[in-house]
Amino acid sequence: MRKLFTLVLGACWGLAGLHAQQSAQYTLHMLSPYYWNSGAAAIDQDLSLTASVRQQWGGLPGAPMSQFALLQVPLPQFRAAFGVKFENDELGAQRNSNLMATYNYQLELGSGILGLGASAGFTQYGLDGSQLRTPGGAYQDILINHNDDILSAGAMSGLAPTFDLGAYYQSEKWSFGVAMRNLTSASIQLSEFELQTTRTVFFNGQTSFPLGTSFLIQPSVLVRTDLTQIQTDVGLLIRYNDNIFGGASFRGYNSNSIDALGLIAGAKLNEKLSIAYAYDLVLSPLREVSNGSHELMVHYRIQQGTKSRKPKIIYNPRLL
């Protein structure tokens, strides 16, 4: 009963606040900055594909399931980059899907590159009323009657445009950025009521420094806020010979926000393919009904970029 109550409470939360669910959270945030910041698209000048799947709070019915896919295409001749990102996020009876295209302009600034990006696309929000139960409802066999004027017994969905902005700076040792998702906080019409997407601001910082000749230490921090609540992720990765890495991430900053401790491991399988895995130890009260969270990310580099942003010169032998 406790698990069922948690499912119903989580699924109804979005209705109570009349807001679509917030952006999904990922423990491996430091490995895919383009996911949350449009300015980071192809900032390393690599043509690449990234895919990630996350099962949160395993063992808890209706727990979040999230997936995303990223395509990043450098356009060095225009000092720019193009990207496409798709995300699907499920929580109980709710489903939120996004498809967006990105363009960013990249400037050489000091010893690094500053990317200024914008994304535009659509977000679709769906709600399966058959999975919900209300205190005054009548439920017998296949009969579903919520006794609620606005809550349907079937599936509902709505579509709205969405826009993101981001600025991201990356050098050999540092990276930091600020981004805003759901810039316009668009309204989504579902049957008899409206939901609003949640405007969310992200701040990040990351650095790296060598430890001896074989190890590289990479601490990072990600702060996200909907201008009402704040959540922080502090991580630390240790890379060995740029092939194998491991570390941890801690989510939360006080007794009300502490959520999980993530254990991270990954490897570069070859020059193009790398893989990473994270397991979250739940530290919030949900640890009593959950056996942890799992996250897997695969990154495939189709073509490696060059350090120089200027195209190579090809000499015509006839001119020699």
UniProtKB/TrEMBL annotation:
Residues 1-20 form the signal peptide. Keywords: Signal. The keyword Signal applies. The keyword Signal applies. InterPro entries: PorP/SprF_Bacteroidetes. This is Membrane protein.
